[in-house]
C-alpha cells in the first residue's frame, strides 16, 4: 500500500534526528535491506521513497507498503529484551533517489527523551499497522477489481485535472508495480486495467493512468 504523505516533517524534529544520525544515500533501485541482513539502525526517510516487500517461493512479490518522506522503518529493533541484533525478513529498496538518516542504538535511546520524537515513532508504527489491517480486510472481503480501484483512487492527485474530467495519479504506476502491491501477476493486472478502461473508470495517456473524475467523486470519498 502507498504511504506517501509526510508523517514526521517538523523542522525542529528533523534537525534533531539529523544531528543524531548518519546519512545513507540510495540510488534508484538500490537495495537497503534483504532477508537475512542484520539491522543496526532505525531508518528515517529524509527524502525519496522506499518500497518494502516480500517474495514467495514461486518468485511472486508482494509490497507491504511504500514509504515517502517523513516515515520511519525498522523502528522496533531496539526494543528486544536481550539486546540481540535483529535480522531483516523482507526487502527494502529505493524507488527513486532516496536519503535515509540512520539512528543507532545509543542515539535512539537519547532521542527517546524527546516527547515529540516518541510521538513521531509511535505514529509511524501505528499508521503502518493500520495500512496492513486495511490490506488484510481488503484481501478478505474485496474482489481483485475493487482492490485495484481502491489502490488507484488512493493515489489520485485531485489538484491535477485533465480535459475537465480525468485526474492524474501522484504515483507513476507500471503494471508490474501494481502487481507487486496487489500480490498478483502482471498479466492479471493488464486484464483488469483493460476492463476498467471499458468501464470508464480510467484511461491511459502516454502510458500514464488517469482516473475518471466522475468515479473519483463517487467512490473516492
Tell me the strand percentage band.
25-35%
Uncertain parts = none
Strand order of the main beta sheet, please? 1-7-6-10-3
> Number of helix segments?
7
Helix content: 25-40%
Helix-strand category: alpha+beta
- Taking the alpha carbons of the first and last residues, their distance comes to 18 Å
Shape type: globular
Mean pLDDT score: 86
Write down the secondary-structure element order.
EHEEEEEEEEEEHHHEEHHEEH
- What is the count of β-strands? 15
**Biggest sheet architecture:** 5 strands, mixed
Please provide a brief summary of the model.
The protein is of the alpha+beta class. The chain is built from seven helices and 15 strands. The radius of gyration is 19 Å and the shape is globular.
Describe this structure in words.
With 221 residues, this protein is α+β, with helices and mostly antiparallel strands. It is built from seven helices and 15 strands. A five-stranded mixed beta sheet has the order 1-7-6-10-3. Strands 2-11-5-8 form a four-stranded antiparallel beta sheet. Strand 12 and strand 13 form a beta hairpin. Helix 5 crosses helix 6. It is globular and about 55 Å long. The model has no long low-confidence stretch (mean pLDDT 86).
Index terms:
single chain, 221 residues, alpha+beta, 5-stranded mixed beta sheet, 4-stranded antiparallel beta sheet, 7 helices, 15 strands, globular
Amino acid at each position: 500500500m502507498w504511504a506517501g504523505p509526510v508523517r514526521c516533517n517538523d523542522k525542529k524534529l528533523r534537525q534533531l534526528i539529523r544531528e543524531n544520525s548518519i546519512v545513507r544515500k540510495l540510488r534508484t533501485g538500490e537495495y537497503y535491506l534483504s532477508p537475512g541482513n542484520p539491522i543496526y539502525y532505525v531508518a528515517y526517510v529524509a527524502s525519496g521513497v522506499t518500497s518494502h516487500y516480500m517474495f514467495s517461493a514461486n518468485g511472486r512479490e508482494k509490497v507491504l507498503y511504500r514509504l515517502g518522506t517523513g516515515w520511519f522503518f525498522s523502528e522496533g529493533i531496539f526494543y528486544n529484551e536481550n539486546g540481540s541484533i535483529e535480522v531483516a525478513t523482507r526487502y527494502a529498496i529505493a524507488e527513486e533517489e532516496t536519503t535515509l538518516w540512520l539512528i543507532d542504538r545509543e542515539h535512539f535511546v537519547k532521542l527517546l527523551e524527546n516527547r515529540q520524537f516518541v510521538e513521531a515513532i509511535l505514529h509511524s508504527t501505528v499508521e503502518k499497522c493500520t495500512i496492513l489491517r486495511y490490506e488484510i480486510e481488503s484481501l478478505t472481503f474485496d474482489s481483485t477489481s475493487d482492490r485495484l480501484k481502491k489502490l488507484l483512487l488512493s493515489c489520485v492527485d485531485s489538484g491535477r485535472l485533465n480535459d475537465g474530467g480525468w485526474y492524474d495519479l501522484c504515483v507513476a504506476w507500471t503494471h508490474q508495480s501494481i502487481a507487486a502491491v496487489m500480490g498478483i501477476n502482471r498479466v492479471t493486472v493488464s486484464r483488469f486495467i483493460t476492463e476498467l478502461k471499458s468501464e470508464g473508470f480510467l484511461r491511459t495517456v502516454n502510458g500514464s493512468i488517469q482516473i475518471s473524475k466522475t468515479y473519483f467523486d463517487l467512490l473516492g470519498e
